[in-house]
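The protein record filed here:
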Amino acid sequence: MMKTLGQALFSSGRQNPKYTEGDKKDQDYEIRTYHATNWMSTTLSGMQWDAAMNTGFRKLFSYIQGNNRNKVKVEMTAPVTCRVDPGAGPACESQFTVSFYVPEEHQDNPPEPSDPEVFLENRKEFTAYVRTFGGFSNDNLKREELLKLMESLQRDGVQYADKPFYAAGYDSPFKLMNRRNEVWVLKKEQE
């Protein structure tokens, strides 16, 4: 418990999903192709990104603390991602899927969740355009950074999927300096 708590507080030594870097474009964003991996996820509906992230994080943190069928503690990893499937209009609820990357030692056989709202997500390989930013993230900052990323992609004539999109956080709320946050937009699939 102390190791997991320490990692949550200070975000040191966390495993990250593997990816292949593409060209970095004009320092605005980078291109990453993430390998196929397993993630533990939970999906919520709501109007606010941060509220969904907080609720989802608590459910997933309970899972890694041993609230799973095997009663196994699972190491904290980074990032915590939040997939956003926007609602039909500005006053409509969006769907948020909050996810933890399953550590390497559990990739082939992750402990089965005991909470029915937590599920195993098998992410296939995907390519994302990624914009990194610092500081403490919030709904407005994530939206601003997402718009900057989309403007950069439009400037460069890059085809991307309008939705879904992702926010990724790497740090505990207790980490004060050198914070790392990201927004991801997926590469548009060839039709």
